[in-house]
Specification:
alpha/beta, Aminopeptidase, 7-stranded parallel β-sheet, 7-stranded mixed β-sheet, 16 helices, 32% helix, binds iron/sulfur cluster
């Protein structure tokens, strides 16, 4: 269960401007509703906010997982479970004693120094298994994150979490999404309600490969049944779901990995919205290290890893996005297995060469920003598929070439499974996302698509589909910082944790 990040707010070096950095100068020339922007400000690491939102990672202090330790997972003193001391995100967090507010402040400053807008932030809680921490700690941790987002704009501190969320609705740094990484056996109804209390909208589940035999071999401590139930409960509550997938685990093989990967999209019980592909490596401080030295385990070679990743991306359907490939483990901690963290570039290059012969459906390779186009004329289309005992509608704004400008995920849950009162009888929007470079609110740019009304068009389509299918209300899981968009522009009302509209 890992997210990687390596940005640091180093001083800008003029000699090191890359071609892509130059292209960003165009954006720096835009104006904030009449206020001139510093034209010398150059955007560093442009892909950081290319999907429209600034990802802000906050790291947890160490806590051992309740079930024990998975054999591939490294343990290091003073570092959250599954990380290594030299990972940049960990080094930053350690320097700040893992204090959540100070981490948020430091990341905001770093983003601003790099020229990234910070009005719209996705808060990512990283390290260990958050839901297993003591309740008091969790509430304090999340409240402190909101307070830090609020304080930097208005100097306001809240008296409790609810107030912190309320203030954030209009703060300068709005939390438009929140992601928590969890285990499939930490997704009971009460745990899902707890995540809603925090303002969480997206969950990353450590799945590795859905096979009970492999789970036993690597001491995962949960079963495939847990994965299936967690996926259904989360979807029925409106969450967007990412799976962490790990090819090359003990007990698997290339054909078996590919077979299981295909099943993730052919079997209705799975069908995630996002993936992180983390091939198994032997990492210093993990139990697998001993198995490797004793000759009981061998990771895939570089060629094998590259080829399996290519084959996996080719199998990803159009409703799924590959968020990341390869963990960012500092090479000094990799005992065996691929050390290169930049493999994705090569994988995508080969995939692009194949585009001539067959289409790649995966979202990231089609989205504006990563995909290049001069055609900004979009139309709305959708596909329907069954998943986790419900029906899903994947609605897209695309141009003629299939370049993706925005998407919405609408779900009709199975009525018998809905356990959240506000969602009874409702169609549920699990995601609304308009792609394009993140811009501060109110900023206009020819190149950006963030504020061009596509969100409204996608929502209208979702409402229309829901109404046509007999639904009388529609609910949206919304980051705290986007609530005003739904009330002010779309006629929705906040009912407990969801934005709801009668149809
Ligand atoms: S669940 Fe397993 S992989 Fe995830 S942090 Fe705990 S021990 Fe590591």
């Amino acid at each position: 269960m890992v997210t990687n990040e390596n940005t640091q707010g180093k001083a800008y070096d003029r000699k090191k401007i890359s071609r892509s950095d130059y292209s960003e100068l165009a954006l720096a020339k835009t104006t904030y509703s009449g206020i001139a922007v510093d034209k010398k400000k150059i955007l560093r690491k442009p892909t950081k906010t290319i999907s429209g939102v600034a990802p802000l990672t906050v790291v947890l202090p160490f806590r051992a997982c309740d079930h024990g330790t998975c054999t591939f997972c490294p343990t290091h003193h003073g570092v959250p479970q599954s990380y290594t001391p030299l990972s940049p995100a960990i080094m930053r967090a350690r320097m700040l004693n893992y204090r959540p507010a100070r981490q948020v402040e430091a990341r905001l400053k770093a983003f601003e120094k790099m020229g990234h807008p910070t009005d719209k932030v996705e808060l990512i809680i990283l390290g260990g298994t958050f839901l297993q921490y003591p309740k008091k700690f969790k509430y304090h941790f999340i409240k402190s994150c909101y307070d830090a987002l609020n304080a930097s704009a208005e100097g306001k501190l809240s008296s409790d979490l609810e107030e912190a969320k309320k203030i954030n609705e209009t703060a300068r740094h709005r939390c438009v999404a929140m992601c928590i990484e969890i285990r499939p056996d930490n997704c009971s109804e009460s745990e899902i309600k707890e995540m809603l209390d925090y303002g969480c909208t997206r969950v990353e589940l450590g799945i590795q490969m859905p096979d009970d035999k492999i789970y036993r071999m690597v001491n995962r401590g949960h079963t495939v049944k847990d994965v299936i139930e967690a996926t259904r409960r989360l979807k029925d509550s409106g969450f967007k779901i990412g799976y962490h997938i790990m090819p090359g685990l003990p007990g698997s093989s290339i054909p078996r990995d590919l077979e299981m990967f295909s099943e993730i999209f052919s079997n209705d019980d799975f069908k995630p919205d996002q993936l992180k592909l983390y091939p198994c490596q032997v990492i210093k401080g993990a139990e697998l290290e001993e198995d490797f030295y004793e000759g009981k385990y061998k990771p895939y070679t570089e060629d094998e890893t590259k080829n399996i990743l290519i084959k996996m991306v080719e199998r990803v359907p159009e409703y799924c996005r590959v968020m990341r490939m390869m963990r960012e483990i500092p090479p000094v901690y990799v005992i065996a297995g691929l050390k290169r963290i930049d493999l994705r570039t090569e994988v995508e290059k080969e995939l692009k060469m194949k585009v001539e012969s067959h289409r790649i459906n995966e979202i990231r390779m089609r989205e504006i920003g990563f995909a290049k186009t001069d055609d900004y004329n979009t139309h709305i289309k959708f596909i329907e598929y069954s998943a986790s005992k419900g029906r899903e509608f994947f609605i897209q704004a695309v141009n003629k070439e299939g370049v993706l400008f925005g998407l919405a995920r609408l779900r009709f849950p199975d009525a018998d499974n809905v356990f959240i009162d506000e969602l009874k009888g409702a169609a549920v929007v699990r995601e609304l996302h308009v792609y394009g470079r993140a811009l501060n609110l109110g900023v206009k740019s020819e190149l950006a698509t963030q504020h061009s009304g596509l969100g409204k068009e996608l929502m209208k389509k979702a409402e229309e589909i829901a109404k046509k299918n007999g639904f009388k209300k529609i609910a949206v899981i919304s980051g705290v910082g986007v609530r005003r968009y739904y009330t002010d522009k779309m006629g929705y009302k906040l009912i407990r944790h969801y934005m709801i509209k009668e149809l």
